[in-house]
Write a structure and sequence with these properties.
- There is one protein chain.
- The protein is of the alpha/beta class and 263 residues long.
- The protein has a single domain (2-262), classed as 3-Layer(aba) Sandwich (Rossmann fold), CATH 3.40.50.
- The protein has eight helices and seven strands.
- The protein has helices at 28-39, 51-63, 81-95, 119-144, 165-184, 205-210, 227-233, 257-262; strands spanning 19-23, 43-48, 70-73, 100-103, 151-155, 193-198, 244-246.
- The protein has a seven-stranded parallel beta sheet with strand order 3-2-1-4-5-6-7, sandwiched between helices.
- Helix 1 links the parallel strand 1 (19-23) and strand 2.
- Helix 3 (81-95) packs parallel to helix 4.
- The protein is globular, with a radius of gyration of 17 Å.
- It holds the Pfam family adh_short.
- Keywords: Oxidoreductase, Plasmid.
- GO terms for molecular function: oxidoreductase activity, acting on NAD(P)H, oxygen as acceptor.
């Protein structure tokens, strides 16, 4: 059962020795995932444009005694293909490997009906939420395929709804992208685990900005919902690939068992 993944707790040091790239790692869900990966032994590369907040996450990880992470400043709205190739090559040169990529970064500019959609905004939304993920994945693939147990996990969200516009199109496109990627790498000789996770509503800054009438404290914290991401990023997931894990909205006071073990 997919719901069981919310209760998953890795064994101690389950991700030890792995290098995992997390996009949008400075805050929100990305911060929670990056911290949890480090908690279980991974060296995390935090990609984000918000350097100050990334540094705060870096300090929290180091102060907790987890493996020292790395910060890679990058704005996915304006980055070029070369920027992503440079990123992948730098990770491999500095850390010697790349075992996982967590595609978490996202941007929802506005809720707008199609007939009023600004074309420049549309282009920016598609770039951040779809095309940038392709560029990053394409650059990282050669190094991922060198790893013994490589994984890509995408933070999905059901968005094919009225007024979601380019965000909804990009999210649907990424679901298809992950399906294609999983199907192309499901053979033992070049296996790559590719899965998507939709944890439903999360208490993040982006959600607060886009749902101003909602009480933020009525939404589950990111830290309570990291378990499915950890599962698919680690060896416990085995050859499970091409899955779309979708969860019901969790209560605001939800707590992950791994939080208690880390306290």
């Amino acid at each position: 059962m997919q719901e069981d993944l919310l209760a998953y707790v890795p064994s101690e040091n389950a991700l030890q020795g792995r290098v995992i790239l997390v996009t949008g790692a400075a805050a929100g869900m990305g911060k929670a995932i990056a911290t949890a990966c480090a908690q279980y032994g991974a060296t995390v590369v935090m990609l984000d444009k918000e350097v100050r907040r990334a540094e705060e996450t870096y300090d929290a990880i180091v102060n907790a005694g987890y493996p020292q992470p790395a910060i890679y400043p990058l704005d996915m709205q304006g980055a070029t293909a070369k920027d992503y190739y440079d990123l992948a090559e730098n990770i491999h040169a500095q850390l010697g490997r790349l075992d996982g990529v967590m595609l978490n970064a996202a941007w929802l500019g506005s809720f707008t009906p199609i007939n009023h959609y600004d074309t420049e905004l549309w282009s920016k939304m598609i770039m951040v939420n779809l095309h940038a993920n392709f560029l990053l994945t394409r650059a990282c693939l050669p190094f991922l395929l060198e790893a013994a147990d490589p994984a890509i996990v995408y933070a999905s969200h059901e968005s094919n709804k009225a007024y979601y516009g380019a965000f909804g199109v990009a999210k649907a496109g990424m679901e298809a992208f992950c399906d294609i990627l999983a199907a192309e790498h499901d053979e033992p000789s070049h296996f790559l685990r590719v899965n998507t996770v939709d944890t439903n509503a999360i208490r993040t800054g982006m959600r607060t900005l886009n749902f101003p009438g909602e009480n933020p404290n009525s939404v589950a914290r990111p830290e309570a919902l990291v378990a499915p991401y950890l599962f698919y990023l680690g060896a416990d997931a085995g050859k499970r690939t091409g899955e779309h894990a979708v969860f019901a909205r969790q209560p605001a006071d939800a707590r992950w068992a791994g939080e208690a073990s880390a306290a």
